Each structure stands twice: as C-alpha cells, then as structure tokens.
Amino acid sequence: MKLRDLLGQDILGNDAAIEPAVAALEVTGVALDSRAVKPGDLFFALAGSKTDGARFIDAAIAAGAVAVVGDHAPAACKVPFISVANPRRALALAAARFFPSQPATIAAVTGTSGKTSVAAFTRQIWERLGHASASIGTIGLVSPKRTVYGSLTTPDPIALHRQLDEIARDGVTHLAFEASSHGLDQYRLDGVRVSAGGFTNLSRDHMDYHPTVAHYLAAKLRLFRELVPPGGAAVISADHDCSAETIDAATSRRLRVMAVGRNGNGVGEGIRLTEAVVEGFSQKLTVQHRGKSYAIRLPLVGEFQIENALVSAGLAIGTGSDAADVFASLEHLEGAKGRLERVGERNGAPIFVDYAHKPDALAKALQALRPYAKRRLIVVFGAGGDRDAGKRPIMGGIAAENADGVIITDDNPRSEKPEAIRAAILAAAKGAREIGDRAEAIRVAIEELEDGDALLIAGKGHETGQIVGSEVLPFSDHEAVAAALASRVA
Ligand SMILES: CC(=O)N[C@H]1[C@@H](OP(=O)(O)OP(=O)(O)OC[C@H]2O[C@@H](n3ccc(=O)[nH]c3=O)[C@H](O)[C@@H]2O)O[C@H](CO)[C@@H](O)[C@@H]1O[C@H](C)C(=O)N[C@@H](C)C(=O)N[C@H](CCC(=O)O)C(=O)O
Ligand SMILES: Nc1ncnc2c1ncn2[C@@H]1O[C@H](COP(=O)(O)OP(=O)(O)OP(=O)(O)O)[C@@H](O)[C@H]1O
Ligand SMILES: N[C@H](CCC[C@H](N)C(=O)O)C(=O)O
Ligand SMILES: [Mg+2]
Prior knowledge:
Layout: H1 3-12, H2 20-23, E1 29-31, E2 41-44, H3 57-62, E3 67-70, E4 81-83, H4 87-98, E5 105-110, H5 115-128, E6 133-137, E7 140-142, E8 147-148, H6 157-170, E9 174-178, H7 181-185, E10 196-199, H8 213-227, E11 233-237, H9 243-252, E12 256-261, E13 271-279, E14 282-289, E15 292-298, H10 304-318, H11 323-329, E16 341-346, E17 349-354, H12 359-369, E18 377-381, H13 391-402, E19 405-408, H14 418-426, E20 433-434, H15 438-447, E21 454-458, E22 465-468, E23 471-474, H16 477-489
Parallel strand pairs: 1-2, 2-3, 3-4, 5-9, 5-10, 6-9, 10-11, 11-12, 12-13, 17-21, 18-19, 18-21, 19-20
Antiparallel strand pairs: 6-7, 7-8, 13-14, 14-15, 16-17, 22-23
Helix pairs in contact: 1-4, 4-6, 5-10, 12-13, 13-14, 15-16
Bound molecules: ligand UAG, adenosine-5'-triphosphate, 2,6-diaminopimelic acid and magnesium ion.
C-alpha cells in the first residue's frame, strides 16, 4: 500500500505536507512498538505514559521501518519523518485503512461498569435474531469462528483493526465492543465505523490515570461527541447523575438518543422500565417502548443486570432489529463469565463469583445479593496493586456496611506489598478478617456457610491468574470454589 493511501487526505491534508517520493513509498505494515517492527513497516512514534516512542526510532529503522510518523522529529532521522499533530489518532485511522474490512453493524459501549456484560448481551441478542455476531472486550474476542483471550478491554488500534478485518472476512456482520476510557482517551477506536454507542453509568474508577472525574467523563463522552456519526443511535441509561450531560452530548451531535431505564423514554425511541420484581434467580420486568408494553422474564441475578439488558436491547433496536423480537430474546440471556455467576452452594447457601473490583460495583453486587441471604451475606475480596489506592478504604467501608461477614484477601498485588494493600482496606472495614492467601480465604468462607447464608467472592470474575510481582500465577475463583467444595465431600 502506498504511504499516501495509508495516511489519507484527512491526515496528510490537515497536518503534513510530504514530498511526492515519500507519498509514493510502499508500506507493508504498521507498528506502534519498535520491538514489533517488520521490514517495510511504517512506525508510529507515540509519546506514552512510561516512555516516548521517539526514543525508539533508530531501533525501528534498524528493524526495517521505511518511514516514521510522530509529532516531534528527532535531530536526525535516516528515513522520511512525517510530522502530524495527533500521532495516536493518525495511527488508528491508518490501521483502519490497512485492515479495511469491518462488520457492517458495530455498537460500542462505554461506562464505568457493565461494558463487558452489555457487549456479551448485545452479541447474544443479535445471535438469537439470526445474525453472525461477535463481541470484543475485557474477556477477549468471542465470535462464531474464533475465541481469543485479550489483555486489554479496548485493544490497541492495530490489534483492534486486525481483528475487525478478520471477523468481517469470517462473515461476522454484527459486533458489540467495549470502549474503555483509556481506549477513548488514547484514540484507540478512532477509525472504527460505529453505528451505535451505549452508556451505562459513571462512578469512581481509574483515578490513577484520569486527573479528575470531569476528565474521566470527557474521555467517555468522546464516544458520542466524536465517534458515533450524526444519525447514529446513542443508548443512554437515564437513571444516573451524569445521564443528563451524556444525553446533552449526544443530542448536540444530532444522534438518535434512546434513554433507557426507570427514567427512560417509553413513549418515543427509548425504553422505560415500569416494573421489576425478583423471582428466584430471575427478575420479572415490564418495559415500555414506543408506547407499547412488554413483559420480560430476565434470567439473571442482580438489579444492575436490568440496566445492562436494557442498554443492550437499545443497541439492538437502535441498529435496526425489531423491538418485540429483541425483548423476547432477553429471556435467554446468559451472564458474562464471572459477573454475579452462581458457581455452587454449600448447606443450601449460594456462592457467587463477581468481577466487582471498584467501589460502586462492590456496593451494587452486595445489594443485588441481599435478597438471597436470609441469614448472613459474606464477602471475600481484595484490591489490585499498582492501581488507584484511594478506592481501598472506600471498598472496605462498603463491605463492612453491606455484608455481615468480611474476609479481606489478595487480588493481583502486582509490585506492591500485599499486606499493605490489605491493611488499607481493613482500616475502613470494622470487624473484617484478613486471610492473604485467596484460595484459603475462599476455603474458610465456604467452610463456614450455613443454610440461609450467601457468599460473594468479588474482584477477579473471569480472571485465570494471580499477579504477584511480575509473575502471573495460575488462579481462578471458579477453581478455588470447586476445590473447596470437593475437599468438603472427601
Ligand atoms: C497506561 C496505558 O493505558 N498504556 C497503554 C498505552 O501505552 P503507552 O503508549 O502509554 O506506553 P509506553 O510504555 O509509555 O510507551 C510509549 C510508546 O513507546 C513504544 N515503545 C516502548 C518500548 C520500546 O522498546 N519500543 C517502543 O516502541 C510503545 O510501544 C509505545 O507506543 O498504549 C498502549 C498501546 O495502545 C497500551 O498497550 C498501553 O496499555 C497498558 C499495557 C495498560 O496496562 N493499560 C491499561 C491501564 C488499560 O488500558 N486499561 C483499559 C481499561 C480497563 C478497564 O476496563 O477497566 C483497557 O482498555 O484495557
Ligand atoms: N450496570 C451496572 N451498574 C453497576 N455495577 C455493575 C453494572 N454492571 C456490572 N456491574 C458490576 O461491575 C462488575 C463488572 O461488570 P462488567 O464486566 O460487565 O463491567 P465492565 O464495565 O466491563 O468492567 P471493567 O471495566 O472492569 O472491564 C460486575 O461484576 C458487577 O459487580
Ligand atoms: N481492568 C482493570 C481490572 C482490575 C481487576 C482486578 N482483579 C485487579 O487486578 O485490580 C484493571 O486492570 O485495573
Ligand atoms: Mg469490561
């Protein structure tokens, strides 16, 4: 591909004036990391949070880069250097041209909590309506032909566009994916042809990355302000403090706003929840859409799953599916792995694994399980190392307030001292116990369960490792529960 075609008029026209010989260079790949450069690649030198890609330009050239894109030229560069104002965005747009195929219908969802669930639900709804569907996010790529574990919620633009191109060529026509605030802030998903955007909620998260909550919200709102094109659908949960600002952002862009939830618009395009009753491990809902009423039995535990289900339904309806079919399909939803998943029981007490690793999610998960604890609600959890330390005491307080028994344990201490993380949580969790070894904490909690209790094991959800230092030790809450239950029988 010629360099001029890869960078295109939108990048070259606005920023860089390049010579015809450079424009005609043949480029055989794109790279954002010098260590991944192959001969013929165009290297994007990105200023990052740890280092500056410009420091690796020589290494990229030594590996075969034929030209470099960046925002500040080095003193000397042995290959052509193309200066652009926003190299991250230029990379995303170039990756979209290099990997040109994308599913025809793409929905992106953002919000502090619920993204993985919404992406999985939207994929399931489309699948049931007969579309070849996929999802991409924290649990990786799930598609009819391949399932690939991913390490980021929103992959880097090269990985993302490579996957979009592959699944589109596999025949996938519908994709739902997660737009993390990091991904939006770093322009990872610019270049994706998004037909609809979804917004669940906003609460404290990633305060180690975003300087302020306003910055965090602004990153999320890029989805509506810059990525979903005018005329596209914006499905917004209407029940939060930030809902009005989100709806305003979408309205100013002339998006088709679909407000969903208790404050949703049931007369127009939105979805209004008028009734929700817990029935065993299901919830009976009544919703209104375009003035019509629908009764739905949602086979999921947790009030927050109603929000996720309604945003997903909105994304499917907003991209052209029939409302009655969509609402009927909600009756078959399966929760994403490790999201309030019932993984066993002992002495009649249900045991749930959940991915709540931030304050609001932990509160919501505990509140969701309260109806299942006639006696005591027990929680086992920790907090990740090298992540926002401010959330630790907040989560400790939430656990003490919402549970009747609290065991503080480890959850990916990374480079930090595990006992210091536990101490920070314990300081605000009056009466909590401390058992650092997570398998042991789970075993003790299960051992003590009695009829009428319920147990929540929070923080790791689908994860399959415990990160200690720079090592990832094999660990899964699911396996730890199975082992604890099996050791009881033996
Ligand atoms: C803090 C953060 O978000 N970092 C992301 C960012 O890296 P960066 O550009 O800041 O990296 P850097 O280490 O400073 O390096 C700068 C540049 O030099 C390059 N380099 C570096 C070394 C070298 O030898 N050669 C070289 O070329 C790097 O490739 C990079 O382009 O851009 C990279 C490419 O897109 C990401 O892989 C990387 O994610 C890191 C691994 C990460 O851990 N991110 C987490 C925090 C994250 O993104 N999480 C979100 C939210 C999760 C949620 O849902 O809660 C996610 O979407 O997963
Ligand atoms: N709509 C919601 N409102 C509040 N809490 C929720 C909601 N949906 C999920 N949760 C809680 O957040 C946890 C993570 O859910 P999910 O993985 O769907 O969200 P996410 O936004 O993808 O999170 P992450 O950014 O960590 O990947 C769940 O296990 C649950 O505890
Ligand atoms: N995307 C989140 C996941 C956190 C999961 C939790 N188990 C932890 O390690 O803190 C992060 O990387 O911050
Ligand atoms: Mg996620």
